[in-house]
Structure formats: structure tokens, C-alpha cells
Amino acid sequence: MPGGGRHGCNPYVKISTTYQSIIKIIDGSESLYKTNGKENATIIFQEVTNMLLDITAPIIPFKGFGEIKLYSTRDELSDLLSLNNVEAMVINENWIRYDIQNSVELFFHLGNNKLFRIITLDNYKGRLFEKIGVGTTEQKMLEIEPSFVYNEFEEVWESDKGVFIEMDAETNRVRWISVYIPELDLENFEECNW
Q1: Rounded to whole angstroms, how far apart are CA atoms 79 and 12?
Q2: Which residues pair with 105 in a beta bridge?
Q3: Residue 70 has pLDDT above 50, yes or no
Q4: Tell me: the pLDDT tens digits for 101-114?
Q5: Contact yes or no for 123/103 (Cβ under 8 A)
Q6: Which residue in 44, 47, 93, 161 is a FRET match for 21, CA 20 to 30 A apart?
Q7: Do residues 10 and 27 make contact, with C-beta atoms less than 8 angstroms apart?
Q8: Residue 180 CB neighbour total at 10 angstroms
Q9: Residue 144 contacts residue 160 (beta carbons within 8 Å)
């Protein structure tokens, strides 16, 4: 049964296996849990963000990051989009971008509410091709994946494998990794027939 609120704002489930052994599973961090210090229960804390956003999940071109899949709808990802520290911004009247806890940016088209692009941010630790991540040097990136070609106009490294990478201009290290749906490159992308 859900907790009654005296332990703070995080919901929890109390499981009584016997009269002498109680387990509480708490959705949230230990720092937000309030107690008077006389806990008799075994307490298990689970971060909600870890269930919804695995910042160590592999980056898979044309697919997504872990459980965040390209082509997902905003409804399908509503639990993730409603977390704390999520910022949303409408871009060019057709797209909405969500910044999820400085870990990923998700781009949805408002015409069909589907996810078409995902970008890593500073806190993301997952790897592209098992070896390229935020902070990887340009030289190392090209050794690992020679299919990258520099696009001078866009100022990004592009691969026909469904990914592009922007470097930090000062450090020459990977700053952002972006995966997207193949339809993004089509002339009729804005018609949302994907």
C-alpha cells in the first residue's frame, strides 16, 4: 500500500512478509526520505530516473538510447517527460525539444508526436559503437569509426550509419552525439508520414 506522506514526498510501497519483517521500496533518493531514525523496516531506494533513463545505455544509430526508441510517441515516453528537471521548448512551430536532466535532448515532431532525434548532453555516459562517448577525442573517434566525414556547412562529423557528432571547439573532443530516423534527410520529412 502507498505511504501516507509522513516520510516526505516520495511514494513507497510497504511489503510485510511477516509481522517481524517489513520491506519498504521507495521511489526516489535516500536524501529526500524523512525518518525519525527509528526504522524497523528494510528500506530499498530506487531512483525513478534510473528506471526511465539509463545514462549508460549504448547509443544505437537509427534505433535510440536504451529504452528510449526513435519513433516513440510523447505519450509512450510521458513518464520520462514528466520527471523533475525536464525543460521543453517548441522549435520552429513544428518540433518540441525536451532536455532531460542534462543527459539527453529528445526532439518530437508536433505533426505526429513521434521522436525523430536524440542527442547526448554532458551527463550522458553511454557509448556509440561501444567506444565513442562524450569527451572522446576527434582522433580516437576517427580511429574507431572511419566512416565519419566532416560537413563544413553544418560543422559536424556525419556518418551514413545514422549518426552525427559535434565537437567542442576548444577541446576538440566529442560534445554531442546525435542519432535520428532515416526520414530526417527526406524532402517530405515535415509531412510526418513516418
Answers
A1: 17
A2: 99, 119
A3: yes
A4: 889 999 999 999 99
A5: yes
A6: 47
A7: yes
A8: 19
A9: no
pLDDT for 45: 61
CB 177 within 8 A of CB 58: no
| Identity of the residue numbered 12 | Y
Comparison of pLDDT for 47 and 132, the residue scoring more? 132
Three cell numbers written together for 26: 521507495
Query: Would you mind telling me the total number of residues written for the chain in this entry?
Result: 194
Average pLDDT of the segment spanning 38-61: 73
9 phi and psi angles, rounded to 5 deg: -85, -10
What 3-state class would DSSP assign to 184? helix
- Where are the domains positioned within the chain? 12-46, 52-191
Task: Please check the confidence at residue 191 and state whether its pLDDT lies above 90.
Answer: yes
Burial profile 9-29: b = 16 or more Cβ within 10 angstroms, e = fewer: ebebeeeeeeeeeeebebebe
Cβ-based neighbours of 179, under 8 Å, separated by 6 or more:
59, 60, 61, 62, 63, 64, 65, 70, 117, 118, 162, 163
Residues contacting 141, CB < 8 A, separation 6+: 132, 148, 157, 165, 174
